[in-house]
């Protein structure tokens, strides 16, 4: 959901009373008893111009090699994302980035370099992070890069067409994904047990009025656009019929060759789940103001027809906690996509810090503990009761980061980062203690007194009390943070991620 750039030379952290300088990814992940670390590659750090013919930055390659090697030396599996919304400015200036199909082959070259340089040690790969968010926020709403939208949508947008560009960008994103997967599967330098997939970011949708057939259908349409728009092509090779119906001739079509390349181009689906919305049917839209957001005749809201909130946490602004939505999203994928393997690639909640709050107050994050606790309960039910094939979980995020247009005011981290006083010193929040004890319990080492000290939420049964962990064998919980960084060659694939941590 966000990116935070780290300097390997200038970081400092505090674990307990110990202050440490240097690379902290492995140290933090170990401290939490987690066994995998998700990060993203910066295309511009690897290939500054975006074009392989212009050369690869050797220092960038070394940056990522150092990170990967340190993770592995500490028994932490690296999970690498190729694209988290940052392509080189040269490509944006030359042909408009993902607005042009020219980016597909440049992305193929970038992916091939990554597979050749890092594929012998990285076994889990994802191509594109959250294509829906990058497409809509970047080209319909204009509040994220590339900051394009119709002028009537936002005066901040200098250019764009909210009606057509989201579909064009999304189409090219899907074809870039397929090109990268094609390279991955014919490359001879990656691990034989590596896997590759795409990461979606669905909200769950409930009908605004539970008795309204129109609103129930609106919720189905919202899910078709949030999930099916990108998952149908990578599984079946084409867009869902509902998306075709409502997008009309604005939706590009795939050639037979493109469809065949897309089909089954994801070994698993990554899910970033945070929250949910109510969906209401909109019978009429303004033909003078066409845009993606209204094409499917759905209006989102935080409250339903009775004024009931979709979840807790409106005081934090970005996310309302609706853990039941995670279970429902997983079942939606199980039922419609033949129970394909799923990894929860992001799940977490922010805290608002306007710069006036004391650090000690921010460290007391009982709401975050409750968020993860309740989401784990629903995740457990999805796996054990519903049979959803979920193989891993990454918490967002390891440390506080720069959260796009929200800057440093939205703190998602398990570790607090002091952005003001220099040195970027990190401090563990209460959720760090909770995760550490939760995961120690999972592998059977926690003493009873550990649970007596564990931060609890008043009136809420903890996951440790609720669940029998022998049901979790083969599941892993991992740290998640966006980092970035480059070189040149060609690579292979496959990986049984059911084994990262044997929880019993």
Automatic annotation (TrEMBL):
It comes from Thlaspi arvense (Field penny-cress). This is Thioglucosidase. Keywords: Hydrolase. The keyword Hydrolase applies. Belongs to the glycosyl hydrolase 1 family. Pfam families: Glyco_hydro_1. It comes from the Eukaryota. GO terms for biological process: carbohydrate metabolic process; glucosinolate catabolic process; response to salt stress. InterPro entries: GH, Glyco_hydro_1. One of its GO terms (molecular function) is beta-glucosidase activity.
